[in-house]
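Re: the request from the purification team.
They wanted to know what the chain is likely to look like in 3D before they choose a buffer screen. I agreed to run a prediction and write the result into the notebook, where they can find it.
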Amino acid sequence: MGLQGFERRLERLVEGTFTKAFRSGLQPVEIARKLIREVDAGRTVSVRGTVAPNHFAVVMSPGDAERFESFAEVLERELADEAREHARTEGYHFVGPVEVEMLADAALRRGDLLVEARIREGDGGRVGRLRLPDGRVVALGEHTAVIGRLPDCEIRIEDSRSSRRHAELRPDADGYVLADLSSLNGTTVNGAPITEQLLVDGDEVTVGDTTIRFEAS
């Protein structure tokens, strides 16, 4: 879907504000296009594969920043998602969470745009998150996270076919490992039953009737 999809998502999220604010001047798609170029330009090859920048400073004139002000958080979030999607398509990975911040610089004129991209390592040099069917996005950290029905599970799901403590995700040198906790109905990754497995970007984990997407980019 690419950048056209990016624009359509923004239009839905900010409704009439988008059309009114961007009839002329710096366009969100210009920012996305330049950010993607910086992802490619800043990538580097390591022993773990191709690592891409994950921290972006988007710098523009005060006048342009004012036009974006009412939905800057939405735009930052969508730009970060666009970077993740591009990395997923190209086979890049990140070593920390993807972050975008929009800044104003009085030295810049309307229409000017700078995007500074850096590789910023997260805890343990890994990054991962789970996208749940109800819309929740859970970031994974340096501690083991249990999936199940119990209230004290880090990732609680309302699913009668899942066990109280169904499976766990634990950090590993190469990312995150999913392990079944002797659950009644088992755990699958992309439809295949597992006992323990290292997850890769885009894997679909099913516990009971609940399917959770793992994202490493």
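For the purification team: The first helix runs from residue 2 to 14.
Please add any questions underneath this entry.
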